[in-house]
Amino acid sequence: MDGANTSWILTSTALVLFMTLPGLALFYGGLVRSKNVLSVLMQCFGIACVVSILWVLIGYSIAFDEGSAWFGGTGKALLSGVGEDSLRGDLPETVFVMFQMTFAIITPALIIGGFAERTRFSAVLIFSSLWLLVVYAPITHWVWGGGWLGEMGLLDFAGGTVVHITAGVSALVAALVIGNRRGFGEVAMPPHNMTMTIMGASMLWVGWFGFNAGSALAANGDAGMAMLVTHLSAAAGAFTWLSIEWLKYGKPSALGAVTGMVAGLGTITPASGYVGPAGALVIGVSAGLVCFYATNTLKQKFKIDDSLDVFPVHGVGGILGTLSVGLFASSELGIFSGQGLAEGVSIAHQLGVQACGVVAVALYTAIATFSILHLVNLMTPLRVSAEEEAQGLDISLHNESAYEL
Q1: Which of 128, 176, 261, 266 has the highest local Cβ count within 10 Å?
Q2: How far apart are alpha carbons 149 and 165 in whole angstroms?
Q3: What is the residue extent of each domain of the chain?
Q4: What SS3 state is found at 383?
Q5: CATH for 3-398?
């Protein structure tokens, strides 16, 4: 066991959990209308509880037990064989289990932004549970657990495919299956509390250092570079988004700034351990530009109510970042290179591997999510009634109100 590495991953674990509770909960909570804010907070809280239990029961085993190229197996169910003295590399395996658990928590929590303000709490919990075991854990095994994508040479340092593409694609599928909010496109549905959203976004920015730099699984130069490029991409993404708004609409918005920040963070995630500072700036600017137009296109052209822009920010950002690894990690580009590609691997070859990973993960996620949603709907209706939606989910589902004024 390495004490320095263990200390850093313990810290990173707390930072990544901090991203969901309270970071993502406040970020999403401020973006919805006041009659639904508690429902979003409850969904984040409930997902943290149920995913933690399932991760220990079987999720960790599916993801990281030795098995086939597709599925990890059940040898570590209930953390069999994981004790105080067992190691994963030079880390206590308990620390590795907990660190990976925080990733498993935030990924389904991201998805709820795609169907916010109209979905039953019971359906969210059932969906998140099945999704963890059918989508997240197997894909984690494919990429990080010794599965076929990792063996192929896919580079995903901290979760471009495992976290952001899976969450983004699933949110899009869920938005299509569940349908738009009543009144979408006809009445304004602005965020009810931008102060809350900016507080949550700030927590996400800080917590993301554990997400990306912690994925080095060591307190070393890789972690340091990952932290640096993460910060640069977030700053570049935020500044690009607000600059586009400034030029296009005459005024920059706080909502645009924090959305661009999240786009920059999500896009740098798969590349954070492989690129240098110059590459991070290019990726961040690209994220702000591409995700801005993806967000506007999805809602204005296609009229799809991905309520909190999960697909255009996380899904598109994850795809862009995963493909960017093949380009900006290459030593052929000199100053853009961080850790670099393996010796003898060309940009064209790595881009092909990255593209294969994107297509495989997106396609499997879409099919599996579609199937899970229809299965859940057989157990309990996915969507609340028209009366419950009009009243607001806080009162109709939880008999509570966020504000008593």
Answers
A1: 266
A2: 15
A3: 3-398
A4: strand
A5: 1.10.3430.10
Among residues 203, 206, 170, 157, the alpha carbon closest in space to that of 310 is found at 170
User: Which burial class, exposed, middle or buried, applies to 388 when counting CB atoms under 10 A from its CB (0-12, 13-18, 19+)?
Assistant: middle
Q: Which of 359, 362, 19 is nearest to 212 (CA)?
A: 19
CB atoms within 10 A of CB 375: 13
Helix (H, G, I), strand (E, B) or coil at 157: coil
Residue at 199: amino acid letter: M
What pLDDT digit, counting tens, does each position of 210-268 carry? 999 999 999 999 999 999 999 999 999 999 999 999 999 999 999 999 999 999 999 99
Q: Which residues pair with 92 in a beta bridge?
A: 87
Count Cβ atoms below 10 Å from residue 394 Cβ, excluding itself.
23
Peptide bond into 252 cis (omega under 30): no
Quote the radius of gyration of the chain (alpha carbons, Å). 20
Distance in angstroms (rounded) separating the CA atoms of residues 164 and 313: 9
Q: How many CB atoms lie within 10 A of CB 90?
A: 13
For residues 280 and 306, is the Cβ–Cβ distance under 8 A?
Answer: no
- Give the long-range contacts of residues 299-304, CB within 8 A, separation 24 or more: 303/180, 303/184, 303/185, 304/172, 304/175, 304/176, 304/180
Tokens 């795609």: give the residue. 114
Other C-beta atoms lying within 10 Å of the C-beta of residue 344: 6
Phi and psi (nearest 5°) for 66?
-70, 125
Task: Please report, for residues 82, 308, 400, the alpha-carbon distance to residue 397 in angstroms, rounded to integers and kept in the order given.
Answer: 39, 20, 8
The pTM (predicted TM-score) of the whole model is 0.96
Sites in the chain below the pLDDT cut of 50: 334-335
Closest to 16 (Cα-Cα) out of 81, 90, 101: 101
Four-residue CA torsion sign, 364, 18, 74, 93:
positive
Predicted confidence at residue 338, as pLDDT, reads 53
pLDDT tens track for 343-353: 667 888 999 99
Q: Name, in order, each residue with C-beta under 8 angstroms of 270's C-beta and a sequence gap of 6 or more.
A: 155, 156, 157, 158, 159, 160, 161, 164, 318, 321, 322, 324, 325
Asked whether the beta carbons of 175 and 382 are under 8 A apart, the reply is: no
Q: What is the DSSP letter of 342?
A: P
